[in-house]
Amino acid sequence: MKTILVVDDEQKIREVLASYLQKEHFHVLESVSGEEALAVLRSQRVDLLILDLMLPGMEGETVCLEVRKFSPVPILMLTAKVAQADRISGLSIGADDYMIKPFDPNEVVARVKAILRRTDDSQLLADVISFNGGHLRIDSLKNQVYRYEEPISLTPSEYKLLLLLAKYPQRRFPREELVDRVMGFGFDGDIRIIDQHVKNVRQKIEQDPRNPRYIITVYGFGYRFGGEG
């Protein structure tokens, strides 16, 4: 379960956000000040920070700068400032996204999910990873996949699917999660589209697509990655 820290001095806003986030199965922590938020971040794991800029004492911008000195935790800023320069400034000091007050709590939840997906999937454990003695190699700097050192042409969705599975060897992914993380939040098509993407990737990277060694079917559930690093 992902932990979200909501930092706002307005109790009503904290309560509303906590209620909506908890309905989506997030664990929610609350802070009323920047100083309290920094103490929480230093003492326990937090997966995302929702940070109001208009805080008493230490302002949100200062909190953001302090957080970035010791933590890469994603930050979603809440601000009443509507000027583009203010929003750009917030992003430039380390925020990942921002929302302008007043806001729709459902949109906040959607932004939280989108940020967590981006930060979860944007990096491999290394810039280049190789499987099965170099049979398959993924270069995340070039966004390129190689089979026996020959470049393989993958569509963006195929590449993202392979990258996600390869990042978490042996983890079982349900189809629904793969659709959400590959096709994007809000995709309302047939979830079986992920099966076609898997079929396409297998045709391109597997020596024997009918007996795959990389993208393994978990019957009645989804898929997992089976390559050996």
TrEMBL record:
Record PROSITE patterns: OMPR_PHOB, RESPONSE_REGULATORY
Q: Where DNA binds (residue ranges)?
A: 126-227
Record's superkingdom? Answer: Bacteria
Q: Where is the OmpR/PhoB-type domain?
A: 126-227
**Which keywords appear in this protein's UniProt record, sorted alphabetically?**
DNA-binding, Phosphoprotein, Transcription, Transcription regulation, Two-component regulatory system
Question: Where, per the database record, does this protein carry 4-aspartylphosphate?
Answer: D52
Q: InterPro entries annotated for this entry?
A: CheY-like_superfamily (IPR011006), OmpR/PhoB-type_DNA-bd (IPR001867), Sig_transdc_resp-reg_C-effctor (IPR016032), Sig_transdc_resp-reg_receiver (IPR001789), WalR-like (IPR039420), WH-like_DNA-bd_sf (IPR036388)
Response regulatory domain spans which residues?
Answer: 3-116
- One Pfam match, given by its short name, reads Response_reg
Name listed for the protein in its UniProt record: Response regulator
Source species of the chain: Paenibacillus terreus
Give the organism's phylogenetic lineage.
Answer: Bacteria, Bacillati, Bacillota, Bacilli, Bacillales
